[in-house]
Amino acid sequence: MNFDFSEDQKFLASEARKFLSAQCTTAHVREVLDDDKKSHHEGVWKQVVEMGWLGTAIPEEYGGLGLGMLELCVIAEEMGRALAPVPFASTVYFFSEALKLAASEDQKKDILPKVASGEVIGCHAASEGPGPVDADKLKTTFDGSKVSGTKIPVTDGDVATHAIVLAKEGGGASLVLVDLTAQGVSRSPVQTLEPTRSHAEIKFDGAPGVRIGEAGEGASLNEALLDRAAVLLAFEQLGGADRCLEMGTEYAKERYAFGRPIGGNQAIKHKLAEMYVKNQVARSNCYYGAWALSTDASELPEAAASSRLAASDAYWFASKENIQTHGGMGFTWEVDCHLFYRRAKLLAVQAGAPKVWKEKLVSALERKNAA
Amino acid sequence: MDFNDTPEEAEFRKEARAFLEKHLKPKDTNAPRRGSGEEFLKRAKAWQKTKAEGGFAQITWPKEWGGRGGTSMQQVVWNQEEGKFDAPVGPFAIGLGMCVPTVIAFGSDEHKKRYVKPALMGEEIWCQLFSEPAAGSDVAGVKTRAVKDGDEWVINGQKVWTTGAHYSDYGILLTRTDPKAPKHKGLTMFIVDMKQKGVEAKPIHQASGGREFNEVYFTDVRIPDSDRLGDVGAGWKVALVTLMNERLAVGGSPGPDWKEIMEYARGTGSLTDQAFREKLADWYVAAQGYSLTKFRTQTALSRGETPGPENSIGKIITANQLQDICNSAIEMQDHYGIMNDTDTMPANGLFQQSFMWAPGLRIAGGTDEILKNIIAERVLGLPQDVRVDKDVPFETLKQG
What we know:
The complex is a heterodimer. By secondary structure, chain A is α+β, with helices and mostly antiparallel strands. In chain A, 53% of the residues lie in helices and 15% in strands. Chain A has helices at 7-23, 26-33, 42-51, 69-81, 88-102, 105-117, 218-254, 266-295, 300-326, 337-349, 354-368, and strands at residues 122-125, 141-142, 146-155, 162-169, 172-179, 185-189, 199-212, 256-257, 260-261. In chain A, strands 1, 2, 3, 4, 5, 6 and 7 form a 7-stranded mixed β-sheet that branches. A two-stranded antiparallel sheet of chain A has the order 8-9. In chain A, a hairpin with a 2-residue loop joins strand 4 and strand 5 (172-179). The radius of gyration of chain A is 20 Å and the shape is globular. Chain B is α+β, with helices and mostly antiparallel strands. Chain B has 3 domains: 7-90, no CATH class; 126-246, Beta Barrel (Butyryl-CoA Dehydrogenase, subunit A, domain 2), CATH 2.40.110; 251-363, Butyryl-CoA Dehydrogenase, subunit A, domain 3. In chain B, the strands form 2 sheets. Chain B has a 4-stranded mixed β-sheet. In chain B, strands 2-3-7-6 form a 4-stranded antiparallel β-sheet, with no helix packed on it. In chain B, helix 1 (7-23) packs parallel to helix 3 (72-82), helix 4 (93-106) runs antiparallel to helix 6 and helix 7 (258-268) runs parallel beside helix 9. The longest helix of chain B has 29 residues, at 274-302. Chain B is globular, with a radius of gyration of 23 Å. The mean pLDDT of chain B is 91.
């Protein structure tokens, strides 16, 4: 039984935490929050690029560090904990993983080194409006060479140089690689609940695109991509949820009311204990997701779903009850609680809301436990 | 990351499995889950003896006490393998898991010589006499009195929820020896012979309808001072050692899980119901969270490390989930769900039976509320609750 990260992976995590707690504080996050013109924090991004983290799980032959998915998971946890205001998730969990999953050898050789070096910033464009993404009802189309349609919202869509677009092609769907700096692409930032991760509306008007994978394979490829991204996002959620628990616990020890710390009251103690339970449920499920991801296990669909569901639930609970524990202070702009509340919601709906993943999970369980 | 045994663990598992195959039949999943009665007790004693002779009883105990001198991980492997067989365990869990370790920690050489081996060999069964009608979560509030009389102590009082009191040979008994001292300071622990005059075990008629637990009355029972465990007034310190072992022993909840309600829902057509599917997903995620957390604990054990506090989440999850699953299964049956006939009900009335057990599981071995307090105080380091009883003579405390 070896259901834990290795010493090397833990060392990587602690180095990442050391770096981020010095170079990516909530003051850095707020620079992006308080400035509408800033899509991300360029200083932090530059350093993340220099550390080589973008290429963590990109093989050396494509210019990456050639580490594995487990290493990427521990970095994701730290990025989530630090609320890193950079397009890391979009570029790595979605864009880079899509290329690794479905791109041709030439495409990989062309683009992955540019991802690793920071030259290419990627994003994933799927949503077209309210409600879950349905690959059978896409309005965005691909005719084999050109993309037309509108995607909204696209996380990091305004800062990205390239996108993986889910588009209708013939009777099915395809994943299409689009250079966002090319002719036929126009994009405008959109306001969201989570301004520290920028979002855009992207309009494609006959923009040149190259298919990733086979025509009509897009729906299943996109599902496989989301399974991978879900595990990595879950680690970000876990990092954020644990930080909320720490903040709530620290505050409950320091804040006095009625002559003693509020953390001496069972109403607060039990709330924080419940947070701890949910975070541990999330952590254990995330580890299982990491294992399935790193070994390409056939259990990945249910492991991804359960890690995403557990982490979404834990982060939601931790972020809202952290505000509650802080009382009136927790509802001020100056105190950091709302940053986590915002990020928790983005991560829970990006790549499909919990309802969608519950259905995916139960479908997978039905297949595995057929009558 | 992997889920494989180390070569040493694999070797031990092989050895354990060979031993089990030689002596037991594989578990019959349709058989009743809870053993009881004279016949079961006889089988349990025989199996305990076989285990001890084979070197598989109390694997982590040192060899001088008849253990194997093995690792905690070997004990985990053994439990996993033994769980796959029709092994009559249970009657010895409290004695060997909690009582006898307390005797080893605080007893005299004579005690250890007298009691450890017979317990290990399945000859003598032990029970734990802590809880009282007015001392549940606040177990240091026990009122059973021990009064010194020459070289003996005279015991009067009542204990409750004592598992196995009626078939136990000995017990460890928490008493109050000094009512003038503050609550935690006036307690003393004893070894008590359960078969002597003045000890009377009566079954408790539980809310679930069954009578598995006992209340035990002590009327002028005499215990020699030589059977005291620890100093006079140091009973709480002794009790903490026993309770520490309890947390290791209380594990999962018996009863239907997500798989069983999924199978049941498939049969009734409810598996297509959207609201049910979402609940099923929640149950799966929480159940996975619990069993995968055990893997993390095992990993620490396998590496020879001390496990983290994450295992403390176990019973809060499992007991609540059991109650929730049973409730949903009954509501799925609509009006018919209120029927409770093991011969005619779907799944042999398992959901109905466990529905009535679940409230007890949320209380036994630490209520949800106490477990949350423990996490808050010992894991998160939050302040203790206000203790109005702290430095006050026990006899002046308000009761009710």
